Amino acid sequence: MILGLLLARAGIEVTVMEKHADFLRDFRGDTVHASTLRLLDELGLGPRFARLPHRLIEAVHMEIQNAPVSLDLTRLPGAHQHIALVPQWDFLEMVASAAESEPTFRLLRNAEVTGVIRERGDRAERIVGVTYRDGTGETRQMRAPLTVACDGRASTVRSALGLTPRSFGAPMDVWWFRLPRRPDDPSGLAGVLSAGHATIMIDRGDYYQVAYIIPKGSDAELRARGIGALHGALVGMVPWLADRVDALTSFDDVKLLDVQLNRLRRWYGDGVLLIGDAAHAMSPVGGVGINLAVADAVAAARILAGPLRAGRVSTRTLARVQARRWLPTAILQAAQRAIHANVIAVAVASKDRNADPTTPRAVRVVSRTRALRRFIGYMVAIGPLPEHAPTFARRGA
After folding, report:
1. How far apart, in whole angstroms, are the C-alpha atoms of residue 302 and residue 387?
2. What is the pLDDT of residues 123-133, one digit of tens each?
3. Triad 169, 366, 203: Cα angle to 5°
């Protein structure tokens, strides 16, 4: 959606295809980090965003193997010393509304992409568009000089191209669910990682969005133990939840996130580009996936706008997008892999939940070093190589 808005502001005919009739998908990532908030200001969308229901997170508090770790975001550079939590459907509707004011933008809903259209050229095969199923179930074609796959970790376009990302593995999956929040409950974002289990609680105003971390592939086994076992585990980690865990009445309310961490070796082909999770699926650690995908979109728009106006985008130009965004992606994925191996794997692997686990040395160093905590806060909220809106897309508020 961000890429569509930026390209439309460059005067390029662009169609964004959305599989569903609306954006109402629960338990999507809802974090909008400081770098993306700054981008919205540059696009003139800051006041619109401010009117959306959202929560501002200025600190992150974690207890990792009995060691407290807090990230203070109030020293970040720029106008936004925080992370915002906003329902993703509201965010997407806001961006769609801004984009639809551009005469060259079209949002096509109820358009489920089913494959790609190939065309044999003089030297090689080229992608010239996609096939899709519309709201009536009829199969149609959409032709374009460039197809950009923004369709996530289970990308249909990527599968149609026969591309397989390199997987780095992950020690955990995540259960997502909601629990009520009282007005006098702790605010912000907090988490507990200890022997055998881990949970993250995201303050969403009148409820907590809870991420309960489980060992990879253990979903069916743990569900078979019954919802009462989950109640007990939650109260064991966060005792003050005892008066509300009964709100979680069955596993029908618990959604599974299959955690993946992977990256394509090549993000492009003749006539096609992959960005975001389609090119590099991120772990939920740090909540950086959305903002990394947004940065991909901004870089792609800046690099591709001129060639698209000229009517032809070469594979060399598409390679420039990957070259721009590969390093920050690799840095963040390396950090996530280290956290998986040294923190999360330890937390979920222990069979004895009453054991007194040894705090990982890296965690002890972080908990005692203010400068390091500030650096980590910067990497989470802004990240390596943040992107600014291109001049052609900027508007006054």
Report:
1. 10
2. 778 999 999 99
3. 75
